[in-house]
From TrEMBL:
InterPro entries: Cystatin_dom, Cystatin_Fetuin_B, Cystatin_sf, Kininogen_Fetuin_HRG
CDD domains linked: CY (cd00042)
The keyword Lipid metabolism appears for this protein: no
GO CC terms: extracellular region
Annotated ranges, domain Cystatin fetuin-B-type: 1-109, 120-231
Listed name of the protein: Fetuin-B
Protein source organism: Mesitornis unicolor
Compartments, record wording: Secreted
PANTHER family associated with the record: FETUIN (PTHR13814), FETUIN-B (PTHR13814:SF10)
GO function terms (MF aspect): cysteine-type endopeptidase inhibitor activity; metalloendopeptidase inhibitor activity
Lineage of origin: Eukaryota, Metazoa, Chordata, Craniata, Vertebrata
Amino acid sequence: ALLSPACGATAVEEAADLALRQINADRKEGYVLRLYRIFSVREHPQEITGSVFYLILDVVDTECHVLSKRLWKNCTARPAHKTVYGQCKAIIYINQARNIAHLNNYECTLQPVPPRYISTICPDCPVDDCPTEPRYLETAAQCLAKFNEESEQTHYFAVLNVTRASMQWVVGPAYFVEFLIQETSCSKNDTIADISKCKPLSSELAQKGFCKGSVLKSHLEHEQFVTVSCEIYSLQDPATEEETEQVNQ
């Protein structure tokens, strides 16, 4: 028989946490999803031990890219006007006695906050735009040039794709981007006239990274200001924080 435990029950909260950890670990694109609330739960106790939980979880995306392998609890939710909301349906088998948590199936649907809502809560905030537009690809390239120049990496990196983009008018147009980068075959010891001609290393050899950057074009001073910060992820398929936690215990 199916039971309807309280959403706040410890076993249900643990099931939701484990399900979301495994969902995030499985996803290859986008951002780590964070639990907003447990919308509904049904529990099917198994004949011998353990239970199957049927969960519907309300989630929001975070500042962490899934490549970071960070646990959702350690990732900051985005401010309300930038949040992507969604819902994940998950079926997970949990047997605490034998330390088993197996995600049988899941499906997540996500959607950004409607622009009309953003304009009411934050009329001056930059609005998310299409990340594949040329101006954002150009912004990412300018940010990456700064990273390549200043980083202590041994090879140059190339832009893989822009994952989020927005613009805002300040003393001129300001463009904000989040993008993935991949290591290329070009060594920083060599003089490279055009880094865009550098071929990316194969996926199994290349380090990847996630960057946030901006380009502000000042019409007053007739110059532009570039900012960038990047996280580089290790070459091997990085252990999740969850696995690291288990090793350290």
